Amino acid sequence: VSKELKLKITPLKMKRDRLLLLNQILLPRVVEWVECFDAESVSDSIKKMHVRGAPAIGIAAAYGFYLGVKKIVDNGEKVTPAKLNNIKTKLDKARPTAVNLSWATSLMLESALNYIEKSSLQNKKDMNSLQLLMELYNKAVSIHEDDAVRCLQMSERGADYIVKKRSLKKYRIMTHCNAGALATGGIGTALGLIRVLQQRGLVEMVYSCETRPYLQGARLTAYELDKEKIPVTLIADSMAAVLMQKKMIDFIIVGADRITKNGDAANKIGTYSHSVNAKLHKIPFYVIAPKSTLDNSITKGDEIIIENRDSSELLEFNGVAHAAKVKVLNYSFDVTPRENIEAIFFEDEVI
Ligand code: MRU
User: Is the bond preceding residue 213 a cis peptide, omega within 30 degrees?
Assistant: First the structure.
């Protein structure tokens, strides 16, 4: 894998016993880190979208789980399965659509329960809480580091596929939302693949859709690509179709928050419309995600819970009201049916 793909951006870091989250609400105007000390504050930050993007949410939740258990130990209380389940529920509730969140907390819970069971099998009177914390810390770090490796693998796999499928001197690419370093533990998924193509000298232009209403495309993707000196042009979401019609796009690549057994993929609201337009204009539409985004417990996309976010995201901008005070519908995600997706790039296979 590409060792030169060094990152200039990271959405989160662990400093002693605090989780620092790059406040993505304020980017790119202000670079500020939010400090979380326990599971409650991590859950709150995920809800408020200080940290966002499916894999990054999962990683933050893994550290949040560790901090939750640490709080119990610091308070001199006993760590019990019921308390561990409470921590998981608290974190899982923060955002419902990205499955990476409950995937990560399930792994953390399993580690903790295994440790407790091991201690009781060894007839230890008192479980060694510090040892448990160390196990959980290491587990969270491995979830984090593992995601970085997966990002590289899927990005190279996807780039190879695209180049083999249709070799062009350079590609004009469209993406939606932010599926970059800011959204993962590594180089990103959609932006990871774009980084790999850029490294190979194959990117002519990335068209970043603004991504109403939270503006992940305008604020985060444009910022991230510009920082890496990857050519980027910002467009309003409503311009996407006309660029396809004018044959200005070679392929579209997006991330995912949950992929069901049949290959339907939930992603940021607006993704579905791009896929419909792509199909009409015969433009390849690709999804790229780690296997932690695959939810085999759900057969098809209409079973995915879609987050409905606060009306203020549409009625206000930076706290200033700019819309008439009417009812708002603010679905945060939509589902692209498998028949609109040419291929899904995972870290270990292309489907
Ligand atoms: O609401 P967000 O910003 O968390 O939504 C993020 C997306 O929809 C991303 O495309 C998805 O999580 C993939 S991130 C690698």
Answer: yes
Q: Which residues pair with 265 in a beta bridge?
A: 259, 336
Among 12, 24, 27, 177, the mutation site with the greatest number of ligand 1 atoms within 8 A of its Cβ is 177
Secondary structure of residue 101 in the 3-state scheme: helix
- How many angstroms separate the CA atoms of 36 and 117, rounded? 29
What percent of the chain has a predicted confidence (pLDDT) above 70? 96
CA distance 227 to 180: 12
Instruction: Answer yes or no: are the C-beta atoms of 205 and 172 closer than 8 Å.
Output: yes
Q: Pick 118 or 192 by higher pLDDT.
A: 192
Record the tokens describing residue 47, joined without a space: 């809800």
- Rounded alpha-carbon distances, angstroms, from residue 25 to 18, 154, 164, 219, 298: 20, 28, 38, 9, 31
Q: What angle do CA 155, 138, 20 make, to 5 degrees?
A: 75
pLDDT for 1: 38
pLDDT, one tens digit per residue, over 163-172 is 999 999 999 9
d(CA 61, CA 43): 7
Q: Ligand 1 test: best mutation among 27, 52, 345, most atoms within 8 Å of CB?
A: 52
| pLDDT tens, residue by residue, 294-307 | 999 999 999 999 99
Would the pTM count as exceeding 0.70?
yes
**Helices of type H across the chain:** 39-48, 54-74, 81-92, 100-121, 129-165, 190-199, 222-227, 240-245, 271-280, 312-315
Lining residues, ligand 1, CB within 6 Å: 52-55, 98, 177, 179, 183-184, 189, 216, 254-257, 267-268, 332
Give the pLDDT confidence of 182-224 residue by residue, as tens digits: 999 999 999 999 999 999 999 999 999 999 999 999 999 999 9
Q: Which of 286, 281, 258, 245 is nearest to 163 (CA)?
A: 286
Contacts with 320 (C-beta within 8 Å, 6 or more apart), sequence order: none
